[in-house]
Design goal:
mainly alpha
Length: 480
Amino acid sequence: MTKTPSEKRKATVPFSAAALLTLVAFIAVMLSVVKAPIVVVMMFSWLVMIPFAMYLGYNLDEMETSALDLIRPAAGVMALMIAVGGMVSIWLSAGTVPSMIYWGLKIISPGAFLLVAFLITSVVALPTGTSWGTVATVGVAMMGVGLGLGLPAGIVAGAIISGAYFGNGFSPVSDAPLMISSVINVKIWDHVRFLSHTSGIAWVLSALLYGVIGLRYSGAAVDLAGIREIMDTLDSLFQISVVTLIPMVVVLGMMIAKFSAFWSILVGSVVGVLVSVFYQGFGLTEVFTYINKGFSLECENALVTSLLNRGGFASMYELVAIIIGSLGVGGILKGTGMLDVLISSLSKSVKTIRSLTVTTVIASVITTSMVGTYYFCMTFVGTLMPPLYKKAGYKPENPGRIINDIANCLVVFLPWNAGALYMSAQLGVPIREFVPYIFFNIILFAVNILFGFFGIDAKKYTPEEMEQFAGEEAAAESGV
C-alpha cells in the first residue's frame, strides 16, 4: 500500500548529511578503488539512496518520479549536447578545425614560443572542447619544439596545459560548461558569456606572463621540422582557406542574432555539410556517418590522426548518461526533502555574497578532491548552492561560474586525478614540475574568489522578481 504524505518522515540535518557522506564515499571508492567508469557509478548511485529514502517513507515509484522530475528540464540541454557532437565532426570534415590549427602553427616564433604555445593550444581547444585531445596532439608537438629550444620542461608543459584547460572550461562544446549549465538550468551561451568575464581576465594575464617570461629565450634556434610536417599533412588532407570558416561564422552569426544555440548549431551544421561535400570533396553518406559516429580519417602522421578523429553524436552519449545519472541522484535527494534540509540549514549562516562564495569554493574543492572528477562536484554543488544564492537575491549564474572554473582548474593539480596523470604521461613531465606554471588555472582560481568575495560582476534578481519568489514560497508553504 502506498503511504500517504502524512506518513512520511521529515529528514533531519544529521540524517541528510549521513546520506550525502555515504553517497560521496560510494562514488569515491568506486572511482578510485574499483576503477569503475563514471557513467556506471553515477547510475548505480541511485541504489545507494534507496535505504535512506525508504526510511523516510518513500517507495521506489516515488523515488523514480523524483529523479525524473529533475532530469526532464535538462532534456533540451542533452539534445544540444548531441547536436554539438555532430557539429564538431562537421567542423573537422569541413576543414574548419584543421584550418585553425594550420594557421596557429604557422605563426610560431622561437622568440615568443611560450606565448605561441599557449595561443595555439587555446585556439585548438576552443572548437574541439577537449583538453586531453589538445594536449595529446598539438600539445605533444609543442613540447618537442620547446625542448628543442632549450626551455625548461615544466614551463613549456604549463603553457600547453593552460591553453588546453582554457578551451576545456570555456568552450560551449566542452563537457564542463555543458554539464554545469544543465544542472543550474541556464542557457549554455548565457553561461559562456558570464564565464568570459573571469576567463578573459585570466587568459589575458596568462598570455602576458608567458610572453614576458618567453623573451629570455628569444635568441634560441629550433628545428621546426615537426611543426612543418603537421602543417604539410593538414594541407594535403584539406583545402585550407577562409571558406572553411563559413560554418563557424553562420553559428556565431545566428547566436548574435539571438537564435537559440540548438537551432544555430543545426543550421550551421547543414552549412558545414555543404562545405564538406562541395568544397572538401567528401561524399554525402560519408559526412552523415561522421555526424553520427565522429570524423574518421587515417594518415601517416599519428598526431594529426589522433587530433582529427573525434566528434559525432555518439561522442556525447556517455556525457548525457552521466548527466542523467547525476541529476537523478540530485532529484532523489531533493524529492525526499534531504537536500532542502541541508539548504535550509546552510541558509541560516550563509547569506552574504562573501559567505556564499567561500562556501561554494570550499564545497567545490572538497567534492572535486574527494571524488577526483568534476562531474559529481558540478552535480552536487550545482544543485545545492543556487537556492542559497536565490534566497540572497543572486542568480544561478554566479555559483555556476565559480563551480565551472574551480572544478575545471583544480583537477590538473591533483596527483591522484586522471587529468593530472594524463597530462604528465602525454608530455613526459612530472606533475610537480608543471603545476607552478599553469598560470591560467591559478589566475582563474584567484579571479573567481576575488570576484565573488567582493561581489564584482554579480548577477542579481530584481526586487520585483524577489517579491514574486517570496509569494511563491508562501503559497507553497500554505499548500495553495
